Amino acid sequence: MRRFEGRVAVVTGAAQGLGKAVGMRLGAEGAIVVAVDINAAGAVATAKAIGSSSFAVACDIGDEASVGKLFETVAAKGKLDVLVNVAAIVPFVKWDELTIAEWRRVMRVNLDGLFLMCRAGSDMMRKGGYGRIVNFCSNSIFAGTPNMAHYVASKGGVLTFTRALATELGPYKITANCVCPGLIDTEGVQTTPHKDAFGFVEMLQAIKGHGVPADVVPAVAFLASEEAHWITGQALNVDAGMVRW
Length: 245
Ligand code: 4PL
Description:
Layout: E1 8-12, H1 17-28, E2 32-37, H2 40-50, E3 55-58, H3 64-75, E4 82-85, H4 100-128, E5 132-136, H5 140-143, H6 149-169, E6 175-181, H7 187-190, H8 198-204, H9 213-223, E7 235-238
Parallel strand pairs: 1-2, 1-4, 2-3, 4-5, 5-6, 6-7
Helix pairs in contact: 1-2, 1-9, 3-4, 4-6
The structure holds 7-hydroxy-6-methylfuro[3,4-c]pyridin-1(3H)-one (4PL).
Residues 90, 138-140, 143, 145, 182-183, 194, 197, 201 line the site of 7-hydroxy-6-methylfuro[3,4-c]pyridin-1(3H)-one.
């Protein structure tokens, strides 16, 4: 399939894991992918791996000036068709060790960052008269996954913000949806004790196995495609049936 021929797609968190996998897929289907990450070298590596006209932009999505610079660069490409917000902090912090500073660190990226990206991204999409926004939520909002209360709270915000965003952008025929993956085997997860939860998570799944980025990518690509035009404000669990909602 070449569903993104001639489309410009911004993907955050593109240096690794789910963001990289999404970027690779959109690029393989013809998109000019703007690979965005706070890890500049990782973003460049992803853009190189995608090839063609894709390029990298280093950006701290929690910083308004940094996001402003990013969108100046995107504006030079003339338009924005697809925005996939993957970048997030995925912490493992025991409840007894959760401080307000750590809470704010996560909210700054997972919610402030999402807002800044959707603010600037939707403004550019409205100028172009087309848009698909896909935000990364998490099935932890249904499960109340342990050792990440602040993350779970932030992802609850992702769900409800996406619903409201869909309302605001509906008049412009721009869609906003989110996917809710379960535990996925990524470089990020492998750096935390969440990596030891695969057995427990698998026990709850209708379909057994360890989730990998390739399991999530097809749902994202569909919601980001032109033909998903009648779907907006929705959340899709992509978790082998761990949660049925
Ligand atoms: C079920 O989004 O959804 C661990 C770590 N386990 O980040 C998540 C589950 C994690 C999740 C998540």
